[in-house]
Amino acid sequence: MSPDFSRTILHIDQNAFFASVEQQANPELRGKPIAVVGAAHRTVITTASYEARKYGVKTGMAIWEGKRACPDLIIVRGDNKKYTYTSAEIVRMMLEYTPLVEPFSIDEAFLDVTHSLSLFGSAVTIAHQLKAKIRHRFGITCSVGIAPNKLLAKLASDMEKPDGLTIIPPDRVGQIIEKIPVGDLCGVGKKLQKQLALYFNIHTCGELGRADEKLLTRKFGIIGARLKQMGQGIDDSPVVPQEEEEQVKSVGHSMTLPKDIENRDEILKRLLQLSEMVGRRARKYGLAGKTISIYVRLGDFFSNFQKQTTLSTPINLSDDIYQAAVKLFGSMGVDQPIRLLGISLSNLYEHEGQQISLFESDRKKEQLTKAMDAVNNKLGDFKVTFGSLLDTEEKGSHVISPAWRPTGVRNVGVE
For position 382, what pLDDT does the model report? Predict the structure, then answer.
């Protein structure tokens, strides 16, 4: 196919985002090797500052591994509220230049500035202005890639870190990506990279772009043609503003626990907590779901269990979600310490203007839920909650999902 290189796309990637935010919040951390860990008491390293990366400290390392690589490493407990606030404010800055802004994760976003160039002069001018505004307000740096499509813009932003600005002009796409490893392309993971090398002796984008499409399709199915296009730097996917994203298919929460738990009462308490978090978010956006899923990870880090059930009618009341989750958990037969719990609500339906319940007990439950939501929406999460949760120290989400968005149903309340 003939590539369309008429667009101008920016990919903006905040450098060592969590660590940079923490260093700006605490001047004593600036210039020092730090590692941010999750909001739970024990977790792996989520981000390391560039000072720490020089010693080999990486995302995903256990804390003891990071300390072994860098004995002077400073461990900082993450503050998710700071990160989500900063991310949302940066997206607002981006919207000053184009309405076509697509958050890709909490620290990345695509901008289609094709129709903004007449207003601001050039993509480079927009990139420099955004970099300056972000640095001035938040004291953090970002790397920017400018290219004719999203695939190449993301590739470009990774080429120079930190604080980089890389351009892939339309007339130099083939020349620039010829020798780039296929693993540098967004969407080509380690497993796929190994398969391309093993079965086709493909290591670079140039080799992938010249590969036989039929052979690729025979091995990889429908993505075979897409892989060849990626090797040629072709990507026609649009920058999709958040309000135009495909309808969310599930609402869920998971939580890494401060310590392994196996006491049934404690497990039930956490399931109730998760049910309230899921139910409240679903209700806020007028959604209800028929399918309840529960996810369990044991303390050995390796054993994972997932089970789901589909109900006859959609639900979104926290107590209904909880009752279904308890039944699912009981059927799983888990008898070992648990490290992580998760609940999700899927098979979603719009739930505006629902019928009034026939039974008085159900009507009371709905009225009570509405009252709790009204207070918590005004004063903050869990200001009014179930009595059994009053002594639960940590009530927020400990993990920021890759699907997190600054507004809408994917905006998760975090602690």
Answer: 46
Asked whether residue 383 falls in the same domain as residue 260, the answer is yes
What's residue 95's pLDDT? 95
Q: What are the tokens at 337? A: 């310490």
pLDDT recorded at residue 229: 95
159, two tokens:
């080429």
List pLDDT tens digits, range 237-265. Answer: 999 887 655 556 778 888 777 678 888 88
The whole domain housing 324 covers 246-389
185 and 307 co-located in one domain: no
The HSE-up count of residue 125 (CA atoms within 13 Å, CB side) is 9
Higher pLDDT, 296 or 365: 296
Please report whether residue 241 resides in a domain: no
Q: How far apart are CA 360 and CA 415, in angstroms?
A: 36
Confidence bin at 397 (pLDDT 50/70/90): very low
Residues 195 and 158 occupy one common structural domain: no
CB 9 within 8 A of CB 54: no
164 and 188 both lie in a single domain:
no
Number of structural domains found in the chain: 3
CA distance 124 to 6: 16
Closest CA to 406 of 38, 17, 15, 108: 108
Whether 125 is in a domain gets the answer yes
CATH number at residue 264: 3.30.1490.100
| Positions marked active-site | 108
Handedness of CA 411, 112, 237, 212 (dihedral sign): negative
What pLDDT does 333 receive? 82
Between CA 149 and CA 159, with CA 153 as vertex, the angle to 5 degrees is 150
